[in-house]
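Sequence only, no structure available. Ideas?
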Amino acid sequence: MGRLRYDGTSDPILIEDVTLAHLKIVIATKLRRQESFMMTWRPVNSGEDQRATVWIHPAIPLQFGFDSAENPPVDARVIAEMMQALNASGELILDHLITLR
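Reply:
I predicted one. Tokens follow.
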């Protein structure tokens, strides 16, 4: 289970390594273009929050942490689908991606 650390103060977002590898490419692509967007997910260890959303912006610190030292396999089709969904709505919803393996 990988970790996406966002803003340097919040608890990390827990995401499977394979999904996190795909997410890293999508986020990096958008931020390289200086494009901000919303990202929504269901927290794994959900306390009060059953759904969470953050605003992804180039100025906010972001760190990807993987459990494995090896690069997980990445599927170009999945990347294209994620980008298409994100570009259509302005929001990246991770619900269906959390179980990518």
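The mean pLDDT is 86.
Hope that gets you unstuck.
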